[in-house]
Amino acid sequence: MKIYVDGNARFDGNGTKKRPYKLVNEAAKVAMPGDEVDVFPGTYRENVNPVHAGTEDAHITYRSVEPLKAIITGAELTDNWEKYQDNVWVTKINNSIFGSYNPYTTYVKGDWYLGPVNKHTGAVYMNDLQFYETTSLNECVKGEIYQRSWDQENSVYKWYTEQDEEKNETIIYANFQGENPNQENVDINVRREVFWPQETGVNYITVSGFKLNKAATTWAPPASYQDGLVGPHWSKGWTIENCDISHSRCAGISLGKYRDPENDQFFTYQHVKSPTQMERDAVCRGQYHGWTKENIGHHIVRNCNIHDCEQDGIVGRQGGVFSLIEDNHIHHINNMQELAGAEIAGIKLHAAIDVIIRRNHFDHTTMGLWCDWEAQGTRITQNLFDHNYAPEGTAKRLEGAMLSQDIWVEVSHGPTLIDNNLLLSKGSLKIPTQGLAVVHNLILGSFTYVGEGTDTPGHGAPQPRYTPYHIRHRTEVAGFMTILHGDDRFYNNIFIQKWPAKDPDPEENLEVGTAVFDDYPTYDEWYKPFKRLEGTFARETDMEDLMEDHFGHLPIWASGNVYLNGAKAWKKESNNIVNDKDKVEFELVETDGQPEIKTNLYDFIGNFKNKIINTDTLGKAFEPEQRFETPDGDDIDFNEDYFGNHRGVSTIPGPFTSEEVSVKTLWEK
C-alpha cells in the first residue's frame, strides 16, 4: 500500500493521495511491511519515529517523491530576533518547545570525550551556515576568527546561550556579522534526532532520497548509547540511500549501540573502571542482549552525501556488523574543531565484522576512516581519500583532538583488507594493530603507530590492551588477546614520498613506505623457534622455552611494491622497485569539479609486473585463524582495479591497470 505525505496540503488527512498526511511521523505510526510512504516536497520539522518493522522480503520504504526535495529537519525557524549590540542579536525561546530534552542545557560530553566540556548539543544556523559557540557573551560580541577552524572565514559567526530560570526561557545571542536575522533563514537545533526509532528492533526500513539535517545529537562513545541524526537504533536490515545528511552536532548516521542501563557512560559518571574495560564489557553483554548475526546489522548505506557533522559522518559499535557502505561522499567532518575526543572520523566503527566499505570518497575530514577493535573480515576497497589534514595556517588542534590520517585500524586481530584505494593525505595509515593485508594501493602518506599505541598506562608498567576476536563470520567471541604487532602483508602498492620528512622532531613518523617494519621478522625467522617441534608434541620445558616467542612480533610479508621520491622499503623485501633519484610529480586536480590525478609516476615503473594476488597468497590472520575472504567465505582474486577494470594474468602495482586508466575522473559528484 502507498501512504502519502504532503506538508503543503491544505488539510491534514488520512494518508491517501487525495487526503495526504501533513507529517511523515503520522505515516510512520501506521506503515506496515510492504508499504511505501511517499513524501512530497517540503520542509518537515519533526523527528520521524518508525513504529513498525518491515520484513526481509517486504521493507517499509520512506521515499522522497522528488529526490532531495523533501527535507526532514530537527531545527525550528526563529524570526523574533532583537538587536542587542553591534552585530549581535538576541532571541528568547520558551523551554516548553524542547520537552524533556533541551539542547541548550545539554553539553557534549561522555566517555572518550577529551575536549573541554563547554559546547552544547544545540546550534544556530543562518542559510545553513552553522555558527560557532562561545563560552561568554563578550566573546560572541567580538566575533573573532577561530584559528583552529578548518573554515576560518566563517568562524566569525558566533552564538552564546544562557538560561532565564525564572521565565523558563533559553536566551540565545548570535553574531550575524552585519546581517539582519529576521530577513534571513535562521533556525536552531530543537530535536535530538531526525529519523530514528525510539525502540530497538524496528527492522527492515528503507529511507530514500531525503535531505536530513540539523539534529542536537549527543556524543556517541563505543560502550554507550549511540544516537545519530538518522539510523536504525540497534536493528537489522536498514537501507539508507540517495540522501543528503548534514549538520548533526555529533553523528550523522548511527549504526551503533543500544542503551544498556548498566553500561552507559560508565566512566563519565562512575569513574572507577577504565572505559577500555567497559568496551570489553559491552562486547560480552551485547551477546547476552542479542548481538548475533541473525538479529543485528546487515545494513546498507549507499549513494549518500554526508557532510558538516561535528563528530562522525557514520558511527557505530557492534550495530553495523555485516553491513555494506558504498558510493558515499563523506566530507567536511569535524571542520569546526569545536569538539575533541577519541571517536571522531568520517566513519568510526567498532566491530566492523564483515563490513565492506567500498567506492566512497573521504575528503576534508579530520580523520577519514577509523576501524577500532574487531575489524575482522573488514574490507576497505576502491575508496578515494584526500585532504584529510588541516589546511595551511590552521592553529594547533584542540587539546584532546586526534592526529589526522586517511585510515586508522586500531587494536584489531584481523583479517582486515585494504585494497585498491588512493590514500592521498599526509598520514595514510595509522596501524597499532595486526592482521592487515594492504594490496594494490597508491599511498602518498606515512604509516604511523607501528608497534606502539596498544598498551594502557598505569601505576608501574603499561598494561596490555586485550581485545576480542570472533568465531569466523559471526559475532560470538572466540577469545581475547593483546596486540603482538605484525602479521601484515604488503603487495603491489605504490609508495610516493609526497611531503618531505624534514621535521627533526615530528609527533609521529613522516617517512613513507614499509621501512617502519625493518625490525620485524620474515615468516621463516618468526617460525624458527617452533620449527624444532614440527611433527612432534611439546614436553618438559618447551612451553617455558617458547614463552618469549609467543609474545614476540609476528612476521611481515612484502612483494611487488614500488617506492618513489625517497619512500623506503622494508629491508627484507626483494621483489620491488626503489627509485630515490628521479623526481616523481603527483597532483590531485579538479576538472569541471571532478577529481583527477596528474603524475609521471608511470615513467618510472616501466615493465615491472607482479603476480595476481589472491586469498591463498595472503594466508590467514594469526589470532582468529581466518582467511582474507568474502563474508560468505569465498576466495578473493585481486584481478580488478579501482575502477573495476580486469587485470589479466599479471599486473603492474598500484590501484590502476594502466597509465591510461589512471587519468580518468576518480569520483563523480
Structure description:
The chain is mainly beta and 669 residues long. The protein has a domain of 115 residues: Sandwich (Immunoglobulin-like), CATH 2.60.40. 9% of the residues lie in helices and 30% in strands. The protein has nine helices and 52 strands. A 13-stranded parallel sheet has the order 1-2-4-15-17-20-23-26-29-32-35-42-44, with helices on one face. The chain starts with a strand and ends in a 7-residue tail after the last helix.
Return the CATH topology of one domain: Immunoglobulin-like
Please give the CATH class of one domain.
Answer: Mainly Beta
Gross morphology is: globular
Mind telling me which CATH architecture of one domain this is? Answer: Sandwich
Class inferred from helices and paired strands: mainly beta
Rg computed from alpha carbons, rounded to a whole number of angstroms:
26 Å
Strand content: 25-35%
Helix content: under 10%
Q: Treating each run of at least 4 consecutive H or I residues as one helix, how many helices? A: 9
Mean pLDDT: 96
CATH superfamily of one domain: Golgi alpha-mannosidase II
Point out poorly predicted stretches: none
As laid out across the biggest beta sheet, the strand order is 1-2-4-15-17-20-23-26-29-32-35-42-44
Straight-line N-to-C gap? 34 Å
Largest sheet: 13 strands, parallel
Would you count the extended β strands for me?
Answer: 52
Subcellular location: Secreted
GO molecular function, one term: carbon-oxygen lyase activity, acting on polysaccharides
InterPro entries: Beta_helix, Glyco_hydro_120_ins, Glyco_hydro_b, Pectin_lyas_fold, Pectin_lyase_fold/virulence, Polysaccharide_Lyase_9
Keywords: Secreted, Signal
